[in-house]
Specification:
heterodimer, A: 300 residues, alpha/beta, Glutathione S-transferase Yfyf (Class Pi), Chain A, domain 2, Rossmann fold, 4-stranded parallel β-sheet, 13 helices, 8 strands, 10% strand, globular, B: alpha+beta, Fumarate Reductase Iron-sulfur Protein, Chain B, domain 2, 5-stranded mixed β-sheet, 11 helices
Chain lengths: 300, 233
């Protein structure tokens, strides 16, 4: 299937490996993700003030781009973009007056008709391709690699935009199983990573990171997988600050679910960009016999 | 008796004061006709320097319009003011020290991330640039696109005065073009010319000029032949 793809800003910079591994893995299971033309920032966070229409312009303009391209569906990867755009979409679908105000303001664009749907890649994999089909395409063995899925806030909350049950999500667990890795059941998978507090309160985030990463590690996880560049930064890069505050802390690699998928489907070195992660997963992957020594040198 | 050519006069409101000016003048000429003398707000008078940014409304139209006073005709019933200068902080950077990693634009202009994609900057651009698109390109680290979309910017600053996110777009575009020139597109011609210069290709001509007195230089300048220079190319 062909589908327009909305990347989001971070996937073009720090989260590069998320995008490249996703596009390659999706292609391997017959999803062609075509980058949307002239997309803009998603709005970064959904504004909760009901009269704050200014902050809904960005997401709605992106839906106009999808509409212009002649599609009624768009796929995204970043949990934050997914959440912001889905909620803005829902808001205007249920409030024609607000939609009209926004359309009037964007008079240079064609009117958004409210008929575009935004889906997360995980949903496409589950609903359109099926985890069973994916498991048949697995080439690489994970040799009992233990993986803790981490949802954070944005994939499952609020209920009306969640890609799965907000209390007991299974979508990432099922994907990890289909890919041949072992799922680690971790109660911290839906906790907040500290989000934007990372800018002003590193300590607060370090505390969250210690709690979430230690919980996964104590339950035997070798790695954590997630779907959000901000969560990746907080749980991954902030491990450096966490160790400085909590001397007994020791971390584990944090990867995007698409990197795990790319590895399983026989790719990796060329699409995963492990070099962009603060906690380098390559020594672990070599130790587990998942990638070969020297293989990672071509990662870039 | 021969008919007198009668010039049609139009009404323009310059900073709230009504003036009758002949039809067909540029906004700049109309202002001068009305008695204004430009100390600021006029430069090249050819649409390149960006000094004469002008904001106006038309009778019975809520929309705000933006033009360069030297490039746009005065319209009957228009109400205008000039914005010869826009206060905006320009980041201090040394281009040769800028690193390619991460997003160099966000480093110097983090406020770019405040863009709400309202497109007001684009509407304010007298050069008809897709300003929002180049700001968004800068935000997503697409330096090449930001540089190319902003290429025709004349730095008038009207975008920056309209932006609800308080971004100084024209400075951002300039940085994007500089970073593009440094990292993304290395110019072969530039390297070639630098090599020639270093090897002393132009030294003799420069030495000759340095030896001349003022009068001789003046004469050389007046007698310069632009057309044959153009033909040499």
């Amino acid at each position: 299937m062909k589908i327009p793809y909305y990347p989001g800003c971070t996937l073009k910079a720090q989260g590069l490996g998320f995008e490249t591994s996703a596009i390659a893995s999706a292609k391997a299971v017959d999803i062609e993700m075509m980058e949307l033309q002239r997309w803009n920032c998603c709005g970064t966070v959904f504004s909760l003030a009901s009269d704050d229409l200014m902050h809904y312009i960005a997401p709605i303009r992106n839906f106009i781009r999808v509409q212009e391209a002649g599609y009624d569906k768009v796929v995204t990867l970043c949990s934050m973009c997914y959440n912001t755009m889905k909620r803005a979409n829902l808001l205007v679908k249920n409030d024609s007056e607000k939609l009209k105000t926004l359309n009037d303001f964007m008079y240079r664009e064609e009117d958004y008709k409210g008929n575009v749907e935004i889906v997360h890649l995980l949903e496409l994999l589950r609903d359109e391709i099926g985890f069973e089909t994916i498991s048949k395409k697995v080439i690489r063995k994970f040799n009992e690699l233990k993986v803790a899925p981490y949802y954070g806030c944005m994939l499952t909350r609020p209920k009306e935009v969640g890609i799965d049950d907000w209390e007991e999500p299974q979508i990432m667990e099922n994907l990890i199983t289909a890919l041949g890795a072992e799922v680690v059941d971790d109660p911290m998978r839906g906790e907040c990573c500290g989000a934007y507090h990372t800018v002003n309160s590193k300590d607060l985030v370090a505390e969250r990171t210690r709690m979430i990463v230690t919980s996964a590690k104590n339950r035997g996880a070798d790695i954590i997988v997630l779907s959000c560049p901000l969560c990746e930064f907080n749980l991954g890069t902030r491990q450096k600050d966490t160790i400085e505050i909590y001397s007994d802390f020791s971390g584990i690699p944090v990867l995007y679910f698409t990197q795990l998928m790319a590895l399983a489907l026989g790719m990796g070195k060329e699409v995963c960009r492990f070099d962009l992660h603060y906690v380098d997963p390559r020594p672990l992957l070599i130790e587990k016999g998942i990638i070969e020594e020297g293989e990672e040198k071509n990662a870039r | 008796m021969p008919d007198k050519v009668k010039t049609k006069m139009i009404r323009v409101h310059i900073m709230g004061k009504e003036h009758l000016v002949p039809e067909g003048l540029t906004i700049m000429k109309a202002m001068e006709y009305a008695g204004y003398r430009f100390i600021r707000g006029a430069g090249c008078r050819a649409g390149f320097c960006g000094a004469c940014g002008t904001v106006y409304r038309l009778k019975g139209d809520y929309k705000l319009y933006f033009e360069l006073a030297c490039q746009s005709a005065a319209i009957d019933g228009m109400s205008l003011t000039q914005l010869p200068f826009v206060p905006a902080n320009k980041a201090t950077y040394t281009v040769r020290l800028i690193k390619e990693t991460g997003n160099p634009i966000l480093k110097f202009y983090p406020e770019v991330a405040r863009c709400v994609s309202c497109n007001t900057c684009t509407k304010a651009c007298p050069q008809q640039l897709e300003v929002m698109d180049y700001i968004q390109a800068a935000l997503k680290n697409d330096i090449e696109k930001a540089a190319k979309l902003s290429f025709d910017c004349i730095q008038c600053g009207l975008c920056a005065i309209r932006c609800p996110a308080e971004i100084a777009q024209y400075h951002v575009g300039q940085l994007a073009r500089r970073v593009y020139g440094k990292f993304v597109k290395k110019s072969n011609q530039l390297n070639k010319r630098l090599n020639e210069t270093n090897k002393g290709k132009f030294n003799s001509e420069l030495d000759e000029l340095m030896k001349m007195d003022k009068a001789a230089i003046k004469q050389k300048y007046t007698e310069r032949d632009l057309e044959s220079l153009a033909k040499k190319k």
